[in-house]
Amino acid sequence: MEIGKNKKTHIKNMRYEDFKDNEYLEKYVEELRQGGVPVALGKLSDIINWGRSNSVWPLTFATSCCGIEFMCVGGAHYDFARFGWEVYRNSPRQADVIFVFGTIVHKMAPVLKRLYDQMAEPKYVVAVGSCAISGGPFKNSYHVAQGVDQIIPVDVYVPGCPPRPDAILYGMMQLERKIKVQNFFKLPQQPEVKESVTPVENEAQYEAKTDK
Amino acid sequence: MKQKLTNRFGWINENNIVENDGRLTVTVAPDKLTEVAAFLKECGYDFLVDMVGMDYGDSLGVIDYVARGADTSDLIALKTSVPDREHPLIPTVSGVWRVAQIYEREVHDYFGIRFIGNNDMRRLFLRESWKGYPLRKDYDADPNINPLPLENEPIADMDTIPVYGIDADGKETVTYRPMYGDDDYVVNIGPQHPATHGVLHLRVALDGEIVRSVDPHFGYIHRGIEKMCEGYTYPQILHLTDRLDYLSGIMNRHAFCLCCEKALQMDVPERAVVIRTIFDELTRIASHLIGWGSICNDMGAITAFMYGLRDREKIMDIFEETAGGRLMAAYDVIGGVASDLHPNFRRRVKEFIPYMRKMLHEHHLLFSANPIATGRMKGVGHLSLEQAIALGITGPSGRASGWKNDLRKAEPYAAYGKVDFDEVLRQDGMTFDRYIIRLDEIEQSLRIIEQLIDNIPEGPYAEKVKGVIKLPEGDFFQRVENARGQFGVHITSRGDKTPYRVKFRSPSMVLVEALKDVAPGGKVADLIMLGGSFDYVIPCIDR
Question: What is the pTM of this model?
Answer without folding.
Answer: 0.87
